[in-house]
Amino acid sequence: MANTTGSIESKKDFKNTPTGQYKYWSEELKASITAREKWWKKADKIVNRYIGKSQKDLNNSEGFDLNLFYSNTKTLGDMLYGNTPKIDVSRRYAQADDDVGRVAAEVMERLLNLDVANNGSDIDAVLRSALQDRLLPGLGCAKVRYTFETEEVPVLDESGQPLLDEGGQPVTEEKLITEDAPTDYFYWGDLLWGWCRNWAELPWIGFRLYLTKDEVEARWGDKAAQGVKLKKQTKTTSDEGGDEDTDTDSAWMKAEIWEIWDKDARTVRWISLGYNKQLEEKEDPLQLSGFWPVPPFFIANVTTTLYTPTPDFALAQDLYNEIDTLQTRISIITEAVKVAGVYNASADNIKQVMQNGQDNLLIPVENWALFGENGGIAGQIEWMPIADIVSALRELIGVRDSTIQLLQQITGMTDIMRGALDNQYEGVGQTDAKTKFGSVRIQALQDQFARFASDLMQLKAEVISRHFSPETIYQRANMRYSKDEDIVPDAIKLIKTPEDARLRIEIRPESVAMVDYQALKNERTDYLTALGTYMQSAVGMIEADPASKPLILQMLQWGMAGFKGASEIEGILDKAIEATLKDKPETDKPDPAIQAGELAVQLETLKGGNTLGAIQAKAEATAIARQDDMAADLQTAHEAHVRKIAEVGAGLRAKVTEIRASLQADLLMEKAQAQSNISQTQATVEGEIKKDIVEHRINMTEELAKTEDEITKLVAGAEVEIQKSAAITANEPESSNDD
């Protein structure tokens, strides 16, 4: 788009008339619109991407989007904002005797928290919308206003009758009915501001208002209503950011009115581009110390090159797009993973095998020999190479997962949501360390959001201070039954002078963030465990020297300050420290000996026994002697205190040494007993083994003897049998011859 804005050399070139001011501010607005157009286009596309309507959907193209941007943004938003805020108001200088300031802070805290309680859904909608704008287009904004309603009521005279004017008509006056300081969400696409490098240099802010013709006429007259241009209000800011669906456009034709807050002139102007003169100009309506009706923008990734947001999505959009491309390919290839192939058209039986779908199916084959020569079923059919497709699918899934991990590292979601070990070789301590390091990023964003909400409530409190009547403040704060009711009028007077009150409005990050209850429980448990050890050590110091009690409590407060949500307990500790300081023993009481000396001097004076000079000399000598005695007493007490501390320390060291020696003796005794038991067990086992060996040897000897006896008997029997056989053999021939 060509640069159609004009150049401005000096404000003096533009007359201080409605027409002259319109010319000047129309040039400023056009220049700012040109500077914001690129961001508006990108922001509209990012919002569409978040809700799942990417550019491919607008073009009716095929694709598969893995909407990790929605998942990451939703998770981050839920972590940053999970509770309606609790507002804390305190004095900027917490002086112990400043009761008026303390009650003023309590009154303002009641007013703000009561408004949050009564309008919780409105406050919640404002903060949640501003946070979403910060996470998506990169800029969140909210605005404060002052509203009131009055009515005409008759003026009464001293007797209570209506007061009449010269014409006999009742005299009336305007009476305040209600007043309020609402906070409004302001859409990021309806904001313009002057050229600058940071918030401190911001020269002006423009808020785009959409007013109907009737509203324009009621405020600026019929001529303005007829002269302003009317158009439909669309959901997107730029012409290229959204789709061409006009069904979502507003049914009303409205005028675009720019409400411009000029910081240099501290004035507010109303301009409508196309209407050739300024509609209205008003001096600073809210009288705020910082002039702006908005806190510093909740802005993303701003640099000192130009004060303009860079959305978080823009820093990682290439990775988001790459993941969508990979997922689209995975989806297409997944569709291709199916059983498919070609077969010989002459082999009709092959088709029956795949289509009949029956178990235990036998299909007759004609000309079996030819079927076999052609390679059987394997020779008649060719399958699509699924293995190659599946291999490519696995590779794509691996690349996609690696890209997702890279994206989570770039966006910080890996560290923010880390809940398990990265791998089997990583210890729990390493993961905890990474989690704590990763929480730095989320903690910084939580602090920024809490600061934005606190600044918004600070503006609301200033509007209340400058514009609310004392009666409204008293009624809204409900201080009638407060124990400090007598101080409330002075406290309200202090509130009405915010420069003197200097109240500090704060919304702590932990009061709005989603609470990790398990981590909070672990932190408190660890702290209470350490606190028990600390108090046991502190008791001895307090008993030895009661004056050390404030120091003990201050050290306890210092350790507690590192924990979220510790401010309430810190307040209690502040009161305890103040009480201990007030309860210190009085060291300025006169010494009874000095009083006795002074009485003696007065008695001597009454008796007239000495001259005035002698009495004074005696009194001075007595006072010097008493001072020396006091110094000696203090030195003695100090030495006794040092000795007491040394004794306590020596006793503790001796006790530790005794316990250590006892533990070492017990350990040695247990070790000796264990060694003795092992030796006894070993000896018993060896005895049993030797006994078994001896018994076994005896049994073997007995068995061997028995065996030898049996062998001897068998040998003897065999010899007898042999002899008998030999004898019989020798006698057999003789018998034959005889025959």
Structure description:
The protein is an alpha+beta fold and 739 residues long. It contains 23 helices and 16 strands. Strands 7, 8, 9, 10, 11 and 12 form a six-stranded antiparallel beta sheet that branches. A hairpin with an 8-residue loop joins strand 11 and strand 12. Among the domains are: 67 residues, no CATH class; 137 residues.
The percent range for helix content is: 55-70%
Largest sheet: 6 strands, antiparallel
Which band does the percent of strand residues land in? 5-15%
Number of strands: 16
Taking Cα atoms only, what radius of gyration do you get, to the nearest Å? 49 Å
Provide the residue-averaged pLDDT.
78
In DSSP terms (H or I, runs of 4 or more residues), the helix count works out at 23
Oligomer: single chain
Distance between the termini: 158 Å
Low-pLDDT segments, ≥5 res: 419-431, 433-437, 586-615, 734-739
Q: Label the structural class.
A: alpha+beta
| Shape category | flat
In short:
This protein is of the alpha+beta class and 739 residues long.
Keywords:
two-stranded antiparallel ribbon, 23 helices, flat, about 750 residues
Question: Topology of this structure?
Answer:
Elements: H1 18-50, H2 55-58, H3 68-80, E1 88-91, H4 99-118, H5 120-135, E2 139-140, E3 142-144, E4 147-154, E5 172-180, E6 183-185, E7 191-193, E8 204-211, H6 213-220, H7 222-227, E9 230-232, E10 253-262, E11 267-271, E12 280-283, E13 298-299, H8 312-336, E14 341-343, H9 348-356, H10 368-373, H11 376-380, E15 381-383, H12 386-411, H13 413-416, H14 428-467, H15 470-477, H16 488-495, H17 498-501, E16 503-506, H18 509-512, H19 517-544, H20 549-560, H21 567-582, H22 592-607, H23 612-738
Antiparallel strand pairs: 1-16, 2-13, 3-6, 4-5, 7-8, 8-10, 9-10, 10-11, 11-12, 14-15
Helix pairs in contact: 4-5, 4-15, 4-16, 8-12, 19-20, 20-21, 22-23
